[in-house]
């Protein structure tokens, strides 16, 4: 009897009661607030371009290793890509974490235009917040799984070069999402929304013309201008726009047009994007762009070659998952800003014009809707590999456009960090629902199978090219 009594006492000592803060997923996210702010600020300061995000990726990996995640780095032949995982069994739920900045724009966190001298990039799409928020959510999920003993694995996918580099496409092509059950995605925005949002398919390419240099005044007959080739191509593509469907978007920038007016340029380059809601339409449009390049070269006596840089499939939203996320977003307490943050936001709002939305919109949740956006994202390829659910939260002042100096400022301010925490809470609540609701999992997977179709075979818009690790150099 004495022996059994000792065993009972020992068991009682081991079975320490689980504390409420260990189980409550919202409290788990709130416990990560300092980490969210610190990591977001550091990545904002780094402002590293696509495939060059060595410090940003390394910071996230260091934080995850300290929390016991196993890490695979350099996946899909991308040095800054990684997959971090914690847990055992299933379901396997992944979170996406972006961290690349945009070239050609920068700003301090001041609420008026204030470029930072010598800085040539900025987080105008808030990917510093994206990476930090997903990191905090992944750690909060890990803590909840451990505290509750729930079977399952949480993954954080470190996904570089979303801005024109299609990092996730190479990761999807390498099969890194094939054994995941679900993926949760979010993005900084000027509003809170869990709408079913379909993006456009996109393919880009750099067209490089080569001619013959000569003195533009002294011997013009001996020159063949590569810039003429670029301009002729652009003229033909602009005429082509009249004969494309309504959803088509074509845009370009001349990345090299010569160096001096009195030298016939022997090299010129133009960078094209082609977008459409249907990936097959992008595939059909692309040969017409190539034909324009060939014709331009023939007509100007130059030569041309081209390189596909990136390509994204449209996103595949699932209503069952988006409605679930909409409910989680609405269950959260509204974002609360301090007086100083509201004064800062009011100054930003003045720069957005007289019709800018009221600041109170940041506390509201947009009505659920099924939408087609006109941007593109490599999340599209992820969503075609695994059922994916997305959310947007108000990290920027209402009315702020992505890729603007106002977005850079908010992404480096406490205003943006609070919206990031809001996203982390929604993601964690969605993950808990997926871990604990087998009926939802079954419904979402059935919807996913139907949306892709019985004969679906994944095909990237990149072909078999390797990641363009130098496309931002």
UniProtKB/TrEMBL annotation:
GO terms for cellular component: cytoplasm. GO terms for molecular function: dipeptidase activity; para-aminobenzoyl-glutamate hydrolase activity. InterPro entries: Amidohydrolase, Aminobenzoyl-glu_utiliz_pB, Bact_exopeptidase_dim_dom, Peptidase_M20, Peptidase_M20/M20A_hydrolases, Peptidase_M20_dimer. Residues 1-20 form the signal peptide. Gene3D superfamilies: 3.30.70.360, Zn peptidases. Residues 204-294 form the Peptidase M20 dimerisation domain. Keywords: Hydrolase, Signal. GO terms for biological process: folic acid catabolic process. NCBIfam families: amidohydrolases (TIGR01891). This is Amidohydrolase. The lineage of its organism: Bacteria, Pseudomonadati, Pseudomonadota, Alphaproteobacteria, Sphingomonadales.
């Amino acid at each position: 009897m004495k022996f059994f009594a000792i065993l009972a006492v020992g068991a009682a000592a081991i079975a320490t009661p689980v504390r409420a803060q260990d189980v409550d997923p919202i409290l788990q996210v709130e416990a990560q607030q300092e980490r969210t702010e610190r990591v977001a600020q550091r990545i904002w300061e780094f402002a590293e371009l696509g495939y060059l995000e060595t410090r940003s990726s390394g910071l996230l990996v260091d934080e995850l290793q300290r929390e016991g995640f196993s890490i695979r780095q350099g996946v899909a032949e991308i040095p800054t890509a990684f997959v971090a995982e914690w847990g055992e069994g299933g379901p396997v739920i992944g979170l996406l974490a972006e961290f690349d900045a945009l070239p050609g724009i920068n700003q301090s966190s001041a609420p008026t235009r204030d470029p930072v001298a010598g800085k040539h990039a900025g987080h105008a799409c808030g990917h510093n917040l994206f990476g930090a928020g997903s990191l905090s959510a992944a750690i909060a999920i890990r803590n909840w799984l451990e505290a509750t003993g729930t079977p399952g694995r949480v993954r954080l996918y470190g996904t570089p070069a979303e801005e024109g580099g299609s990092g996730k496409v190479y990761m999807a092509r390498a099969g890194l999402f094939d054994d995941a059950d679900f993926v949760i995605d979010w993005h900084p925005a000027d509003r809170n929304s869990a709408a079913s949002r379909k993006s456009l398919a996109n393919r880009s390419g750099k067209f490089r013309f080569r001619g013959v240099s000569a003195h533009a005044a002294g011997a013009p007959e001996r020159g063949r201008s590569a810039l003429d080739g670029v301009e002729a191509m652009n003229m033909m593509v602009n005429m082509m726009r009249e004969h494309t469907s309504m959803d088509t978007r074509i845009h370009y920038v001349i990345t090299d047009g010569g160096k001096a007016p009195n030298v016939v340029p022997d090299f010129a380059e133009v960078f094209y994007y082609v977008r459409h809601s249907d990936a097959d339409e992008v595939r059909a449009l692309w040969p017409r762009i190539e034909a324009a390049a060939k014709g331009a070269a023939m007509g100007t006596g130059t030569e041309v070659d081209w390189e596909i840089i990136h390509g994204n499939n449209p996103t595949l939203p699932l209503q069952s998952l988006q409605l679930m996320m909409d409910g989680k977003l609405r269950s959260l307490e509204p974002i609360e800003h301090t007086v100083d943050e509201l004064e800062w936001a009011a100054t930003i709002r003045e720069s957005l014009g007289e019709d800018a939305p009221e600041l109170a919109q940041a506390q509201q949740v947009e009505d659920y809707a099924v939408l087609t956006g006109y941007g593109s994202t490599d999340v599209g390829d992820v969503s075609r590999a695994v059922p994916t659910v997305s959310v947007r939260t108000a990290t920027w002042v209402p009315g702020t456009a992505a890729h603007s100096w106002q977005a850079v400022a908010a992404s480096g301010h406490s205003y943006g960090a609070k919206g990031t925490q809001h996203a982390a809470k929604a993601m964690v609540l969605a993950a808990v629902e997926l871990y604990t609701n087998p009926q939802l999992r079954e419904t979402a997977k059935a919807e996913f199978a139907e949306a892709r179709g019985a004969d679906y075979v994944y095909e990237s818009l990149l072909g078999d090219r390797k990641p363009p690790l130098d496309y931002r150099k």
